Amino acid sequence: MSRNILPEPPEELKQLSHTLAKHIREKLGTDGMIPFSTFMEMALYEPGLGYYSAGLHKLGESGDFVTAPELGSLFARCLAGQVTELAETLGSYDILEVGAGSGRLAADLLTALEPGKRPTRYRILERSADLREVQLEHLATHVPDLLDRVEWLDHPPESGWQGVLIANEVLDALAVERFRMGKHGVEQVCVNWESGRFGWAFRDAPAALGQAVGHVASDTKVEFAEGYRSEINLHTADWLDAVTCMMTRGLALFIDYGYPRGEYYRHDRTDGTLMCHYRHQAHDDVFFWPGLQDITSWVDYTALAEAADHCLLEVEGYTSQCMFLLGCGLDTILSGNNLNSEDGGLALATQARHLTLPGMMGEKFQVMGLGRGLDQPLRGFRLQDLRYRL
Ligand SMILES: C[S@@+](CC[C@H](N)C(=O)[O-])C[C@H]1O[C@@H](n2cnc3c(N)ncnc32)[C@H](O)[C@@H]1O
What does the alpha-carbon distance between residue 63 and residue 31 come to, in Å, rounded to a whole number? Predict the structure, then answer.
């Protein structure tokens, strides 16, 4: 989609974006470039200016995109089915939600869990100071009686805990490197500033990027043609280790749009998976008003499974969001629905369609469960096992 048909941001927000662009330009190296990963990191998280740090209204109908928890409570009610099963095994347990957005999932999940099955602590690890405030307000309004068990962490837990980690649409919001196959090998895709705007620039890939791309190529047996571009996250294993290393027993659930590696790096997917969201329009212009739009890349689930191995976590399951939610009991929730409930029958049916249809969130969103110390089948993964595709 061309930027010409994207809605024009209001003047005061353009000023915010100009300030962020100035900060980004100050980071350009002596060769006039920064890696794309630095651009993405600043565009999303530069304090006070980045998309997730600047107090913009991002999620939900009036924002830029709608996530599964923002559709309504059905997603949380399904997750409660999986969490309850684990609660029965673990006894007392915590939930750690990473990247909690508006706080809606936290409130709806705490509400959906039966009182005896609720976590001792619902901990939130949220990078954005602005979103932490939004989460607190949402939880204080919707679950005031349960607020005392919610706490915000400044960094991943530093002492042992058991329970469930949930990260919905977080991996896709982590900054990634871009690479291009050049005439003489792998190149690092960078960003420069020319004629008053950001643009693409290229240089030889640093060793770590070259090796990572080499690993992908040998694993997929794809020979990338000259000009092929894609993304790669060089820090998945470190990040995963940081958020799970103190989980002594439990399950980490990652829900995001993504592919197994063979599909992610298909020879005909020649321009990668970057996607931007602005006012409910998905497009690929990453330089459109930095800081005012979301920038995401799809998740390489094979890389997540490799990272899990590195972190001594077991891949307990990998499936589509549709099959995960059905396994968790989505159909039972729908059939037992009270039409007079707040989430009335029609609203629930609409959510169910959005969450499960292949053309909507049902298949492009996938779920991976990484466990430690678990020895039981998990209901979310009982209907479909896609681990063979990793
Ligand atoms: C696309 S939003 C998803 C929000 C929410 N999970 C949902 O589904 O509505 C990404 C969230 O992850 C947070 N985030 C990104 N990187 C993070 C990190 N390294 N640690 C914690 N939170 C992070 C963002 O601030 C934001 O809350």
Answer: 37
DSSP H helical segments within the chain, as ranges? Answer: 11-26, 36-45, 68-71, 74-90, 104-112, 129-142, 207-220, 236-244, 261-264, 301-310, 321-328, 330-335, 345-356
Question: Of the residues 44, 64, 170, which should be mutated to test ligand 1's pocket, given the most ligand atoms within 8 Å of the CB?
Answer: 170
Percent of the chain as helix, strand, coil, to the nearest 5? 40, 25, 35
Is the CB–ligand 1 distance for residue 167 below 6 Å? no
Q: Is the CB of 53 under 6 A from ligand 1?
A: no
Q: Say yes or no: CB of residue 171 within 6 Å of ligand 1.
A: no
Q: What are phi and psi of 308, to 5 degrees?
A: -60, -45
What is the 194 CA–ligand 1 centroid distance (Å)? Answer: 32
pLDDT digits (tens, 9 = 90+) for 297-335: 999 999 999 999 999 999 999 999 999 999 999 999 998
Check pocket membership of 103 for ligand 1, CB cut-off 6 A: no
Residue 128 CA: nearest ligand 1 atom is: 25
CB-ligand 1 contact for 321 (6 Å cutoff): no
> Running DSSP on this structure, what letter comes out for residue 122?
E
Query: What's the rounded Cα separation, in Å, for the pair 48 and 166?
Result: 26
Give the model confidence (pLDDT) of 62-105 as tens digits.
778 899 999 999 999 999 999 999 999 999 999 999 999 999 99
C-beta separation of 69 from 352 below 8 A: no
Pocket lining: 213 vs ligand 1, CB cutoff 6 Å: no
Higher-confidence residue of 232 and 342: namely 232
Residue 118: exposure state from Cβ atoms within 10 A (0-12, 13-18, ≥19): buried
